[in-house]
Inverse folding.
């Protein structure tokens, strides 16, 4: 006998991340992320599983170990270790040695004592091994604080408010904070210890290092353009790994480039690129000469999927993209998202149609390959699997699942399987969506969920929030309207300059198609969404009264205000043909939900993080204040210290409270007859405030 999935079951979910197969292909190291319910903290440990499917074993104790990387001979594992939670230095000595910051460590592959490699004041990034196995390259931030006295005051048990002087348009980033003080550069450190050697310098950020097969050159991503503080992007650069070497730029500043990867012969570099300005939401795969002798070639010009993982769920943000060449240099392996799945593909380095290597039934969100490129380690999520390790043979195409991290929980709770929904949207476009149905009989109330982006996609991945709503008796309808990725560049570009237009028509058509299929009560509907989905939720309730309740999360309400308050608000206006408030205010406000706030009569719950720099909390506050002033039913919940990614990687207790709030709001306004939701108490262990 199973029970319904409840909000505080989130504490029991574990997930596999960052799979790394040994050069010999015999073992896979990976990160297991779980929540310590007692401390409300994430715990991340490294685990290893043999390729033959023997039992996985824990490799490190954590509490916060990530980015495992095998040495070229497979004898060592480098990784990043950080404390759990916040650990502040107590003295200048501790500060200068990077106490409380992530640092590089190294450990024998057969187990034993881990040894710390770096002691950098601002910490170290993911390691990349040199081919000889004697050193690793990594990125790290460096620079002085804008107000050093205020920053160092806690070391003397003082608290001084900082004074910041900002002279750059792009000066902060959601989830990171201020980004104008310190620059990220590349370093090299010996595995025997010692001070790292700095490889790059300058008033720009350098990252994504990739070492040539002969160990003599370094490819990396850097934005050194004159407009980097206004229209951030990135180019592919190459430099000799010797003192005094001067980097050379291989790309032309028209793209945002990432994930450089060397061909086996060291003559070519593959990379991913998307438009730097006027984004169409589409990423392509390119190849260029490492010597800069020829113009880069785009390999995926007619490829409908986008060459990245753009699938959205509430278990993780998008991982960094990676590319791998085949051992003979004829193909490049990469992830691409199309029609609701993220799969592993291979494309000929000379061009041609990519071929899919995985089964098109889930979201592949990470992969690595062995030295011979015959064994592929994958992390895979499906609608009923949060994330496990799979092993794929590139020889015969057979795949095996090696872990079942949540088998215990899923023996207790029943999960729903989505039904695919094909329908016609505006202009007769053929669109895709899904319905997740509850186990209850009869007509069910339904929640229309709208994804963020807008240039992202819903798909075949585990979504805790959706499963929870279905378990509590709600049908969940979710669709990919125009603007979504995975259906070609024209499809994702179609939302530009038309937020709230034909995208809204597509979403309504998807809801109608789900209702027409049967099993949904058209008189008991709710709507919810976050980010662009929050914008669209606000737009929905200000343009129709058909929804009985709504939940808007990390929303957008006033595009004119967003221009100056969001970390990239002016950049967003590129999606409105470069509109600016002082010239185009009427057009901007015509597409801002706050303009129509007096039309809103739907009970609205506003969930917003007070450290959200992408969609600042003022966006939610404007909706709340206006609706309260108008005497409408509205409630706002502020999540202190949380960012735009609260639902995916925010504080565990805040995430559970958020889920409970969504369920409570819909259950109070759209009750499910006989549903277990109304009988679930807010337990002390969940950390959810009791309602009175």
């Amino acid at each position: 006998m199973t029970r319904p999935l409840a909000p505080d079951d989130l504490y029991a979910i574990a997930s596999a991340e960052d799979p790394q197969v040994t050069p010999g292909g015999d073992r896979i190291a990976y990160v297991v992320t779980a929540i310590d319910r007692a401390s409300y903290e994430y715990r991340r440990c490294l685990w290893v599983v043999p390729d033959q499917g023997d039992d996985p074993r824990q490799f490190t104790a954590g509490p916060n170990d990530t980015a495992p990387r095998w040495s070229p001979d497979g004898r060592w594992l480098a990784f990043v270790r950080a404390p759990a939670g916040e650990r502040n230095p107590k003295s200048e000595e501790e500060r200068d040695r990077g106490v409380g910051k992530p640092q590089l460590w190294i450990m024998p592959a057969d187990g034993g004592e881990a040894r710390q490699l770096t002691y950098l004041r601002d910490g170290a990034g993911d390691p990349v091994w040199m081919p000889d196995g004697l050193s690793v390259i990594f990125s790290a931030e460096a620079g002085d604080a804008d107000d050093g006295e205020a920053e160092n005051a806690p070391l003397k048990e003082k608290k001084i408010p900082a004074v910041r002087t900002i002279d750059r348009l792009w000066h902060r980033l959601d989830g990171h904070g201020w980004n104008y003080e310190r620059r990220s550069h590349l370093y090299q450190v010996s595995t025997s210890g010692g001070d790292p050697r700095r490889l790059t310098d300058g008033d720009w950020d350098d990252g994504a290092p990739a070492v040539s097969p002969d160990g003599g050159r370094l490819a990396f991503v850097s934005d050194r353009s004159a407009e980097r503080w206004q229209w951030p992007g990135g180019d592919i650069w190459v430099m000799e790994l010797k003192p005094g070497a001067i980097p050379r730029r291989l790309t032309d500043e028209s793209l945002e480039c990432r994930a450089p990867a060397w061909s086996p012969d060291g003559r070519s570099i593959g990379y991913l690129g998307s438009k730097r300005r006027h984004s169409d939401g589409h990423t392509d795969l390119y190849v260029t000469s490492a010597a800069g002798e020829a113009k880069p070639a785009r390999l995926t010009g007619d490829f409908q999927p986008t060459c990245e993982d753009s699938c959205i769920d509430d278990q993780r943000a998008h991982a960094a993209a990676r590319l791998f060449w085949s051992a003979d240099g004829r193909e490049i392996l990469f992830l691409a998202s199309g029609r609701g799945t993220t799969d592993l593909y291979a494309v000929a380095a000379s061009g041609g149609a990519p071929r899919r290597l995985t089964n098109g039934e889930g979201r592949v969100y990470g992969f690595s390959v062995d030295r011979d490129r015959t064994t592929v380690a994958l992390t895979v999520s499906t609608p009923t699997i949060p994330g496990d390790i799979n092993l794929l043979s590139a020889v015969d195409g057979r795949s095996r699942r090696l872990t079942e991290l949540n088998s215990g929980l899923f023996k207790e709770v029943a999960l729903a399987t989505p039904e695919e929904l094909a329908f016609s949207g505006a202009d007769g476009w053929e669109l895709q969506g899904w319905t997740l149905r509850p186990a209850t009989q009869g007509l069910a109330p339904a929640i229309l969920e709208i994804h963020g982006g807008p240039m992202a996609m819903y798909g075949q991945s585990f979504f805790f929030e959706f499963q929870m709503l279905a378990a509590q008796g709600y049908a969940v309808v979710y669709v990919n309207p125009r603007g979504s990725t995975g259906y070609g560049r024209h499809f994702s570009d179609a939302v530009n300059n038309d937020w709230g237009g034909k995208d809204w028509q597509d979403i309504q058509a998807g809801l109608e198609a789900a209702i027409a299929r049967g099993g949904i009560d058209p008189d008991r509907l709710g709507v919810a969404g976050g980010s662009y989905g929050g914008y669209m939720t606000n737009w929905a309730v200000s343009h129709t009264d058909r929804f009985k309740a709504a939940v808007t999360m990390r929303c957008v309400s006033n595009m004119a205000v967003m221009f100056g308050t969001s970390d990239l608000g002016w950049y967003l206006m590129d999606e409105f043909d470069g509109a600016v408030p002082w010239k185009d205010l009427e057009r901007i406000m015509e597409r801002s939900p706050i303009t129509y706030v007096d039309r809103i009569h739907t009970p609205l719950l506003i969930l917003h993080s007070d450290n959200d720099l992408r969609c600042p909390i003022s966006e939610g506050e404007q909706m709340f204040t206006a609706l309260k002033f108008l005497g409408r039913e509205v409630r706002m919940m502020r999540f202190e210290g949380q960012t735009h990614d609260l639902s995916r990687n925010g504080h565990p207790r805040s995430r559970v409270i958020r889920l409970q709030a969504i369920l409570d709001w819909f259950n109070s306004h759209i009750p499910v007859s006989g549903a277990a939701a109304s009988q679930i108490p807010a337990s002390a262990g969940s950390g959810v405030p009791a309602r009175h």
Remarks:
- Residues 675-692 have pLDDT under 50 and may be disordered.
- The first helix runs from residue 92 to 96.
